[in-house]
Amino acid sequence: MTSAPRLPLECEGETATSIPRHLRYTWDHEWLVVDEGNATVGITAFAARALGDVVNLRLPEVGTWVEAGESCGQIESLTGVSGLYAPASGRVLEVNTALADDPGAVNAAPYTGGWLFRLRVENIAGALTPDAYAAHCAHTQGDRR
Questions:
Q1: On the CB side of 65, how many CA atoms lie within 13 Å of its CA?
Q2: CA 5 → CA 8, 42, 144, distances in Å?
Q3: Which residues contact 53 (CB under 8 A, 6 or more apart)?
Q4: Contact by Cβ (8 Å): 86, 68
Q5: Which of the 8 DSSP states describes residue 43?
Q6: What is the pTM (predicted TM-score) of this model?
Q7: Which DSSP letter does residue 59 get?
Q8: Which of 21, 16, 39 is nearest to 115 (CA)?
Q9: pLDDT, tens only, 21-69
Q10: Are 134 and 25 contacting, i.e. CB atoms less than 8 angstroms apart?
Q11: Contact of 92 with 60, CB cutoff 8 Å
């Protein structure tokens, strides 16, 4: 297993000034950062707050192919089960095995220790810029700036 990727510090809310600027986002509230063709994937703080306490995760298996925009897992919280969607197409290289013992890390540190999986990127389609994602969040829940 490789070491955890270097990711940005947490943000308190998803506004244009607090969304990590070097990440890309999806309409479904996943984030990704690409480094040398490998992407680290997680869910945003916005999604983590909306889900509530995460209690279980079903992540894609290492070696499987995921397709951008397609379901690749599930996130179970105290309030229900939500789909996990691949923000890019590629082969899964690694999953965050620490989440098996501590799924709440997704809530506590969605941009650091709560990352979900890494993949070798073949195609990124439709990733949102931080500004576009901030506008999406503002439209979805009302801007809390």
A1: 3
A2: 10, 12, 30
A3: 77, 78, 104, 107
A4: yes
A5: E
A6: 0.79
A7: P
A8: 39
A9: 778 888 888 999 989 999 999 999 989 999 999 999 999 999 999 999 9
A10: no
A11: yes
